[in-house]
DNA sequence: GTCTATAACGCGATAGAC
DNA sequence: GTCTATCGCGTTATAGAC
């Protein structure tokens, strides 16, 4: 039993090393520019060994996403320990995702139609964590809409999707590449544009848009 | 001269047909899922003929982007004929891009690192149009910041990038896929979340965030 | 000559042999 | 763990049809 445990530990360590490499490469180059050969070269193992752990390139990406989702879930659980208004909790989560992006640790995957999307929605570990995270964020969203700090005219899913989308918004990469703002400034800018919107004087605008939105 | 003109016309018509097919396939399946074989099958020409017009798959995508940028420029020029506040002009442009998306005519390209990005920034026709569009939108953005309808705390480029990013925001696709909102409702929802932000009561929030943003 | 059809080459993902 | 094979796809080259 000690041997088995040891062997399993070795496998686990290797798997962690693979996922770490994949995560870094995905953040650097994106899914299509990352080749499996790069991964095995980076980890220092043979291609066949990698395919013992993961059955496809898509599985590799899914493992990296599972990793960041676990980190996100841990961050959310940590935030739940501290009492704060729902809006502030959501802002803190958004801030955390931007920090991950700025640290170069957010995998960049094609968000639209692709074989990868299909593989992800079919991936149980990924979907379980995504749904759990959605549930946790959904609580804050509904609480925020109830206490008036979040727009109740917007369907809760829209708030959820928008927050998820900001976790890989290309605008952050553009600002980072421009190089004229500090990381802290970029985060403040994007939090403001996301939660506060682009325009001032929301009253008239919100009233005008509410007409149709309410019909949902 | 008539012969040359006729031949050129034939080439032009074929090129238009190619770009139209590419545009549709890009909107349907995205760049990586679209194969060159599909394109030639759809147009009904031989592969070699296609490569006479476009030297690579990336060039095909660039041609499709040039097409939508030309449509966008035409729409902006049309809007400039009609007097309206800068904020309303920008909202109208954002609305137009969402209509294009909902009509299934917006090419979906990987927005992040990829060979395609490199090809696009090196593509003169694409970059010329993109810069021209940026200039035109920039005028409205600065005017909107000057008249107080757009947040002056945000750098103008941030507003520009954010509008561009909304033109291919995955949130629209998610709402469309959910199927529970009409096209008009989706547009109103996204305009509100983009220009109005997710939260209500922007005063305190804006004041808090402005501290650091201003340091830029 | 220009189009079409088809084959061929390179590269990367995947799988199996040793 | 290395090596080799296959397959898909982008790309190029070849050969035939009008």
From TrEMBL, chains A, B:
Residues 35-54 bind DNA. InterPro entries: DNA-bd_HTH_TetR-type_CS, Homeodomain-like_sf, HTH-type_TetR-like_transc_reg, HTH_TetR, Tet_transcr_reg_TetR-rel_C_sf. Pfam families: TetR_N. GO terms for molecular function: DNA-binding transcription factor activity; transcription cis-regulatory region binding. Keywords: DNA-binding, Repressor, Transcription, Transcription regulation. It comes from the Bacteria. Residues 12-72 form the HTH tetR-type domain. SUPFAM superfamilies: Homeodomain-like, Tetracyclin repressor-like, C-terminal domain. PANTHER family: HTH-TYPE TRANSCRIPTIONAL REGULATOR BETI, HTH-TYPE TRANSCRIPTIONAL REGULATOR RUTR. This is TetR family transcriptional regulator. It comes from Kinneretia aquatilis. The lineage of its organism: Bacteria, Pseudomonadati, Pseudomonadota, Betaproteobacteria, Burkholderiales.
């Amino acid at each position: 039993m000690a041997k088995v445990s040891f062997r399993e530990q070795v496998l686990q360590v290797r798997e962690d090393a693979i996922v770490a490499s994949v995560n870094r490469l995905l953040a650097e180059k994106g899914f299509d520019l990352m080749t499996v050969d790069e991964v095995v070269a980076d980890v220092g193992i043979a291609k066949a060994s990698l395919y013992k752990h993961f059955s496809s390139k898509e599985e590799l990406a899914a493992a990296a996403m599972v990793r960041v989702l676990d980190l996100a879930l841990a961050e959310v659980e940590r935030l739940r320990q501290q009492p704060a208004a729902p809006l502030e909790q959501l802002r803190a989560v958004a801030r955390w995702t931007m920090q991950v992006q700025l640290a170069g640790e957010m995998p960049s995957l094609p968000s639209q139609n692709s074989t990868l999307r299909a593989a992800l929605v079919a991936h149980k570990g990924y979907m379980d964590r995504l749904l759990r995270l959605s549930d946790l964020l959904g609580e804050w969203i509904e609480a925020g809409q109830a206490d008036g700090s979040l727009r109740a005219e917007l369907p809760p899913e829209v708030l959820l999707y928008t927050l998820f989308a900001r976790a890989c918004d290309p605008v952050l990469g553009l600002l980072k590449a421009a190089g004229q703002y500090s990381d802290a400034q970029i985060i403040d800018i994007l939090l403001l544009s996301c939660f506060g919107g682009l325009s001032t004087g929301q009253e008239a605008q919100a009233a005008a848009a509410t007409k149709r939105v309410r019909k949902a």
